[in-house]
Amino acid sequence: MVIWAFVILVMLMIPLLAIVIDSEFGRAFARRISRDPQAGDEELAVRVEQLEGEVRYLSETLEALREETTFLRSLLEKKSEPRSLPPGD
After folding, report:
1. 56 belongs to a structural domain
2. Number of helices and strands (H, E) in the chain?
3. pLDDT (0 to 100) of residue 40
4. What single-letter DSSP state applies at residue 1?
5. What share of the chain has pLDDT > 90, as a percent?
6. Does a structural domain hold residue 11?
7. One domain for residues 10 and 20
8. Is residue 47 domain-resident?
9. Do 8 and 22 reside in the same domain of the chain?
10. For all residues of the chain together, what is the average pLDDT?
């Protein structure tokens, strides 16, 4: 009896497995399994290097903007006596 139940279960699982393997999920899973893991690591390393360069550039730009803001703030806060125009001819 147990053997017949197992045989019937296997027979029902074959079409279900075929449907899943032929689906988009099955194809995506197969591509992921067959993909070379070393190629992904190289692509990831290049991408990380590019992102680090962008972060470095943005940090330098931010620092330059801070310096400019500090300079402009010091000019605006600096109290200078209003100058009068020299006498005209």
Report:
1. yes
2. 3, 0
3. 66
4. -
5. 29
6. yes
7. yes
8. yes
9. yes
10. 85
Residue at token pair 């991408």: 47
Query: Are the CB atoms for 55 and 49 separated by under 8 Å?
Result: no
Q: How far is CA 28 from CA 18, 24, 40, in A?
A: 15, 6, 16
Across 25-30, average pLDDT: 83
Work out the angle between the directed axes of helices 24-34 and 2-22 (0-180°, nearest 10).
Answer: 80
Instruction: Please state the pTM of the whole predicted model.
Output: 0.45
Amino acid at 55: V
Is the pLDDT at 72 greater than 70? The verdict is: yes
In the structure encoding, which two tokens stand for residue 70, read together? 């500090």
pLDDT of residue 36: 66
Structural domain including 19 reads 1-35
Look at the chain and report how many structural domains it folds into: 2
28, two tokens: 């995506």
